[in-house]
């Protein structure tokens, strides 16, 4: 009687462990799919892949401009803000080019180097942009990214999805997939040993 209970409990435990392993594998595959349709296209589309050194030539704040309404966004996303323009000397080519914060900045407003997050207080936005401009004037030399193919003549300060960020994004689903497969293998080994013991 006790042996039957132990066998039943063992089978239940194996079934639960097997379901856990299969669930982890399924979740990891869904995460792979999600990363593949969201992050990977942005990473492959970016042409600013080579790092170089930029030296600030001019950082000026122009009159207020409207943040262009991107496709699919609402009218409330449009708001006025001071336009910061940063011109740098690209060490790799020696050219004078305009600096943008990220690839997204160029898409949102090609006239300005920085597009702030919408804030209710316009004074806060102005103070924020003035602080950024003063930092550029203070730290004049810094690493930046440019397009080695020459498709884009401008440069960006940081990439939205650098190689390290992409690897980190794939790290968690890979660990989950490996853990799920390991659980399934251990359950199958346990079942095999149980059958072999019963046969002997």
What's the SSE blueprint?
Blueprint (H helix, E strand, L loop, with lengths): L1 H44 L4 E17 L13 E11 L5 E5 L2 H6 L13 H17 L2 E6 L8 E2 L6 H37 L1
Parallel strand pairs: 3-5
Antiparallel strand pairs: 1-2, 1-4, 2-3, 4-5
Helix pairs in contact: 1-4
Judged by helices, strands and strand pairing, the structural class is: alpha+beta
Elements, N to C (H/E): HEEEHHEEH
Helix tally equals: 4
Query: How far apart lie the N and C ends?
Result: 21 Å
Biggest sheet: strands side by side, in what order? 1-2-3-5-4
Report the portion of residues in β strands: 15-25%
Helix content: 40-55%
Give the low-confidence spans. 69-76
> Shape from CA axes?
elongated
Instruction: Provide the gyration radius in Å.
Output: 27 Å
Family: Belongs to the KCNMB (TC 8.A.14.1) family. KCNMB1 subfamily.
InterPro entries: K_chnl_Ca-activ_BK_bsu (IPR003930)
Organism: Lophotis ruficrista
Protein name: KCMB1 protein
């Amino acid at each position: 009687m006790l042996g039957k209970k132990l066998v039943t409990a063992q089978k239940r435990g194996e079934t639960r462990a097997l379901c856990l392993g299969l669930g982890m594998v399924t979740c990891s595959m869904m995460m792979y799919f999600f990363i593949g349709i969201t992050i990977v296209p942005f990473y492959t589309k970016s042409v600013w892949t080579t790092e170089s050194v930029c030296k600030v030539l001019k950082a000026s704040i122009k009159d207020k401009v409207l943040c262009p309404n991107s496709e699919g966004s609402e009218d409330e996303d449009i708001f006025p803000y001071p336009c910061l323009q940063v011109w740098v000397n690209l060490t790799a080519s020696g050219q004078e080019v305009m600096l943008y914060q990220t690839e997204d900045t160029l898409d949102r407003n090609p006239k300005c180097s920085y597009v702030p997050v919408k804030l209710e207080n316009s004074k806060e936005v102005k103070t924020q942009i003035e602080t950024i401009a003063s930092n550029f004037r203070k730290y004049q030399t810094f690493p930046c990214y440019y397009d080695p193919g020459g498709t884009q003549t401008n440069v960006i300060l940081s990439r939205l999805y650098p190689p390290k960020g992409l690897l980190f994004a794939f790290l968690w689903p890979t660990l989950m997939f490996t853990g799920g497969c390991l659980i399934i293998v251990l359950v199958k080994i346990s079942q095999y040993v149980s059958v072999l013991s019963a046969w002997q």
